[in-house]
Amino acid sequence: MVLSFQGVSKIFGDQTRALDDVSFTLNAGEFVFLVGPSGAGKTTIMRLVVRHLLPSQGSIHIGEMDVGKLPKSRIPLLRRKIGMVFQDFKVLSDRTVFENIAIALEILGKSEHEIEKKVMEVLGLVGLDRRMRYFPTQLSAGELQRIAIARAIVAGPAVLLADEPTGNLDPTTSWEILKILKEINKMGTTILMATHNSDIVNSMRKRVITMKKGKIAGDEKEGKYK
């Protein structure tokens, strides 16, 4: 077990119930799609995993860590186990491709030699080794998302959360990003991807967790977008 939600509910201050008694478990090496209409609770799940939010009820575990009970001093340790990719890339415009990825390792205090080695490895994986000295303004949207993916995986997280990673991309570029995610998954990283892209979900035939009004409406091993 890599990630587990047990009876998790999230109620905001205005009494909006974003999640209602949600339970699921992700095992090591799984690739899981999280689908459902806007407002169904997908992003809330992602934010709870990385402790941007705390559950109102229930428990969340990453490995042996109880996310909700972690002291603040251990939250950075939790986040080292989780990579996060967003729809809007969140790259730093004043840094090169190499520097955008390296920052994830600099924060961890890695040596220059290790940073160089790891960054070059992931640049090759995402196909940006010839763009490493470019700045974000010189790149396409698909290349910006490749930077974000490389930065998310360079420290070797156990889980990669991808929140609508193809939402701003054309269909061809979306499939290129999915190929990269599949390669990362083959290397052992567990992936949880929230998406509205039914073509990708239906073609991949991976496990699909369907959310509706804060509840799990379906959990199928080789599911489709419904």
What does this structure look like?
This protein has seven helices and ten strands. The protein has a six-stranded mixed sheet, sandwiched between helices. Strands 2-1-4-5 form a four-stranded antiparallel sheet, with helices on one face. Helices cover 33% and strands 26% of the residues.
User: What is the radius of gyration?
Assistant: 17 Å
Apparent shape = globular
Structural class: alpha/beta
Task: Give the neighbour order of strands across the main sheet.
Answer: 6-7-8-3-9-10
* Count of helical stretches: 7
Residue-averaged pLDDT: 94
Task: Tell me the helix content.
Answer: 25-40%
* Major β-sheet annotation: 6 strands, mixed
Spell out the helices and strands N to C.
EEEHEEHEHHHEHEHEE
Q: Can you count the beta strands?
A: 10
Strand content: 25-35%
Would you identify the regions where 5 or more consecutive residues have pLDDT less than 50? none
* N/C terminus separation: 27 Å
Keywords:
single chain; 226 residues; alpha/beta; six-stranded mixed sheet; four-stranded antiparallel sheet; 33% helix
